[in-house]
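User: quick one - fold this with threonylcarbamoyladenylate bound?
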Amino acid sequence: MDTKLFTLDQLDQAATLLKKGELIAFPTETVYGLGADATNEEAVKKVFWAKGRPSDNPLIIHVASKNELEKYVENFSRQALKLVNAFWPGPLTLILQVKEAIFAPSVTPGLKTVAVRMPDSQAALDLITRTGVPLAGPSANTSGMPSPTAAEHVYHDLQGKIAGILDGGETGVGIESTVLDMTDPENPVILRPGAVTKEAIEEVIGDVMIVSSSPKNGESPKSPGLKYKHYSPNEPVVIVDGNRKIWENAIHYYQKQGEKVGLLASDECLSHFREKAEDVFSLGNKANVSLALKRLYAGLRYFEHTDVTLILAEAYENNGLGTAYMNRLEKSAGNVHF
Ligand code: TXA
Ligand code: MG
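Assistant: Sure. Structure tokens for the protein plus threonylcarbamoyladenylate:
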């Protein structure tokens, strides 16, 4: 199959293909999504095939308006409504009780719940509206790879497997939405941290829990996606958390083992060690955590096109937006710290 690249003024052509049950990757404010008509089982099945995604990992539904939500979910709580009003459109996905017989069965395999969000991207909203159905949209990467933050990343992973890519340029946030389980409104749980932080959610609905990123042995994770390896580039990633001396030791240690070391780090760090590394990718100024989030996945993917054999990546403080940054970085590193 030929994968076509559509510009935003060719959005109607992309919508027509979606209506026919084809897959179209589309930009959102977080990462690119792999769109399929969420009411069409054949289309949804293709999503799992194209990504190589395990069939028990449910998909997020993307809607174009807040009002639509009531058509798809049961027992919509006052707290959930508060969150929708505070954060939609935006990078907050809510897990709610699903109404029966609306979505294709593979969207919510064996579950009584569904993940829904309204993206803060005009291109995404227009595409959903023109297609006229809610779109299933997991991140548009091969399963296990970092999510795509540019159309080129999607093309790299999925060319030949999907009908097209709607190119909306680089995405803004750079990592996937916060996933919040609201099925029990009294006990909201963050299943995946994101740009809508725990602190911001608590300002609207009070205390929320956050699940630890890796469930213990024998424990079944609340979000099926949590049990799979994620966000990993081809080169191993090691997290470095520390001062100049520790960085020096880390670089020296791996180079002695014959590794060609790449640095994924802040400008402050690179100003000391740029010359020592095989190649580098800047996360920006250390004080700017949202810029580090925006660049993290592009950085992880960058080294594939270099001679680098091992990536040393800089830790950020584990609070506020840094929680989401460290969550994705720890997954891509398989939790390996120097
Ligand atoms: O920002 C995003 O959320 C992006 C853009 C494209 O919207 N989408 C995205 O989708 O990251 P995906 O499929 O890569 O991640 C969805 C996550 C998975 O970890 C999945 O297991 C979880 O949400 N999830 C989906 N439905 C669920 C449900 N009913 N209950 C619990 N977890 C669910
Ligand atoms: Mg994903």
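One thing worth noting: The first strand starts at residue 4 and ends at 6.
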